[in-house]
Specification:
Layout (H helix, E strand, L loop, with lengths): L1 H11 L5 E2 L25 E2 L36 E2 L12 H5 L5 H13 L4 E8 L5 E8 L3 H12 L16 E2 L13 E6 L7 E10 L2 E10 L4 H14 L2
Antiparallel strand pairs: 1-2, 3-4, 4-5, 5-9, 6-7, 7-8, 8-9
Helix pairs in contact: 1-5
Amino acid sequence: MRWTAALLTFALFGAGTAYGIAGMERTDVPGLGTVSDGRWVFPVLRKAPLPAGKPGPLDAGNKAGSHYADLRALVLPAPEGATADPALRGTDGWLPVKDYLGEYAEKEDRDELGTKLSENGLRHIAARGWTTPDGTHTRIYLMQFDTAAVVDDLFGRDLAPYGSPGYELRDATASVSDEHFPDAARIQDITASVYVEPKPYGTEQTRHAYISSGDVLALVVQSRKGAANPVPFQQTVTLQSQLLG
């Protein structure tokens, strides 16, 4: 995990606002000679441009933590060789709330969470999904609210309380905190709660994470038949966090 964490950290900061962890060959990492560890090749990523005179979401003067860039431009693109999930394209890039709520297993949870999102002033949802050749299915949802304070409250109280998620996903009968997610894969000033479906998990395993960055609350979900590889999941969470920073 040490080399994975280091790779995730240093590759992201190597080119100003351009970053990605696809370029380094595995054989370039000292001590590694095997061919593949399951990492994905992402395109070079650049933060979406801000409107003239507008601050970034983490700037000191941006008290509300507002993301002024188009939220649809902040969703992580699919890696090379992936097949896009048309169900997450939405209309003009905006996903209906009911489609996001479909990630959750229980109708009572979907109804309750839908009410909370509405009451807290959910503005819109941008999403993207894909399936890679190894069978991993990824879904990413970005939800934008009016202020960072609203996001912090939903994150800590409802969706990602300590120890386990507030609501179980449809693809995971149970989830626990992922204690093996490396600290170096976390991005400073962005909060991420990371979960994994423990054994026994049936025919497939699911990993997911909630990310809080300013006025945006994100959900990243990956599921795969057999076991879900932690390496591309770490890539996805880290890169998505970077785009939101």
